[in-house]
Specification:
This protein has 321 residues and is of the alpha/beta class. It has helices spanning 12-23, 38-41, 72-85, 164-175, 199-208, 253-259, 302-305, 308-320; strands at 2-8, 28-31, 90-91, 96-101, 105-109, 113-121, 128-129, 142-143, 156-160, 180-184, 211-214, 218-222, 226-231, 234-239, 242-245, 249-250, 285-287. Helix 1 (12-23) packs across helix 8. The longest helix is centred in the N-terminal third of the chain and has 14 residues, at 72-85. The protein is elongated, with a radius of gyration of 21 Å. Bound molecules: flavin-adenine dinucleotide (FAD). The site of flavin-adenine dinucleotide has 32 residues, from helix 1, helix 2 and helix 7.
Length: 321
């Protein structure tokens, strides 16, 4: 079947685009390499969104949570309900590997191929973690995704990073019985972006020594039972059972480049798109959601990128009429 638009990525913004396409009688499909809202599914089990639930609403489906800020399980339930109530066409567990421009677009996936007049890329940034690039990183004890604190009970845990994820993980593992929690931070301070209601908590735990910390420090080597860290006072070796590398994630730029999308030379290597239409330099290929920010992964989020869908579908309708 030929489509008016293929949407790559079934995150909240890909879903938004599908709803808008359906409202406008376009023939569409969403394709995702994982489950529905795969990124959200991989967020920590006990996470709470910083947005209130109304700000995460899409497709005029009300989102009512028990508290003002919803939990991960409430959000998963909500986006399942949105997709069911709009009866959206979503093909899951199907990875898009190539998009070729022929007369239309040929979209090659792990299960087959699609032909579409337009393509929306809403693939987010959560699939590619920043690596530490040190010996020992491939050991099973090194995790780039954190789920819940239970596995770390009674263990010596090192948390790498200075932003919200690292802080949340350090506090949660400390409170749920990790034997020792050590934060290893490359910078001299925690990130400015740490949530203002969490910052005093982590600072107090660090100051009282409940959570150990090494600032201006980097891991040099990971061994089965230890870590080597370079600190301003010199190199030291600490005992360690797990490394939780909360060092952030980045968009798959090689995927974008293979499609022919230009990547900017600015500090965030922003993929080229016209902010008035969201169209890239490849005619008929649009960007939506968090991927639009390149390495500035906190520029766009659900709250402020829901409207990308309206802009894109309006443009597709205009170009196809
Ligand atoms: C801990 C945490 C808390 C957050 N809290 C909030 C909040 O309170 N409010 C808020 O607005 N935002 C919040 N965000 C940010 C928000 O979750 C993201 O901005 C949002 O998920 C972006 O949506 P998206 O649809 O652009 O991308 P994503 O949700 O990342 O979806 C991208 C999808 O594309 C799929 N994909 C990737 N590559 C391919 C491929 N080659 N083929 C097929 N499929 C592919 C992925 O599997 C994924 O399902 C939070 C983020 C984190 C990490």
């Amino acid at each position: 079947m030929d489509f008016d638009v293929c949407i790559i990525g079934a995150g909240p913004i890909g879903i938004c685009c599908a709803i808008e396409a359906k409202k406008n009688n376009l023939n569409y499909v969403i394709i995702d390499r994982g489950c529905l809202v795969n990124s959200l599914y991989n967020y920590p089990k006990n996470m709470t969104f910083f947005s209130t639930s109304d700000k995460l609403e899409i497709g005029d489906v009300p989102f009512i949570s028990h508290n003002s800020k919803p939990t991960k399980s409430e959000a998963l339930e909500y986006y399942r309900r949105v997709v069911s109530s709009w009866e959206l066409k979503v093909n899951l567990y199907e990875e898009v590997s190539e998009i070729k421009k022929t007369e239309n677009f040929e979209i090659i996936t792990s299960k087959g191929r699609y032909i579409s007049k337009n393509v929306i890329i809403s693939t987010g940034f959560y699939d590619l973690p920043y690596k530490l690039n040190v010996p020992g990183e491939t050991l099973d004890k090194v995790k780039h995704y954190y789920d819940e604190p239970h596995p770390y009970f009674g263990m010596k845990v090192a948390v790498v990073g200075a932003a919200n994820s690292a802080v949340d993980v350090a506090l949660e593992t400390y409170r749920k019985g990790a034997k020792e929690v050590t934060m290893i931070v490359r910078e001299p301070n925690l990130s400015e972006t740490v949530k203002y209601w969490v910052k005093p908590d982590v600072e107090n735990r660090i100051n009282e020594g409940s959570i150990k910390s090494y600032f201006n420090s980097n891991i040099k080597k990971i061994d089965d039972k230890s870590l080597t860290i370079s600190t301003p006072e010199g190199e030291l070796v600490i005992e360690n059972d797990f490394v939780l590398a909360m060092t952030g994630y980045q968009p798959d730029f090689s995927f974008l480049k293979r499609i022919g999308i230009e990547i900017g030379e600015d500090e965030y290597t922003t993929p080229f798109h016209n902010p008035d239409t969201m169209e890239t330099n490849v005619d008929g290929v649009y960007l939506a959601g968090v991927i639009c920010g390149g390495l500035k992964t906190n520029k766009w989020f659900i709250e402020n990128s829901r409207d990308h869908s309206k802009i894109i579908i309006k443009e597709i309708k205009k170009n196809n009429s």
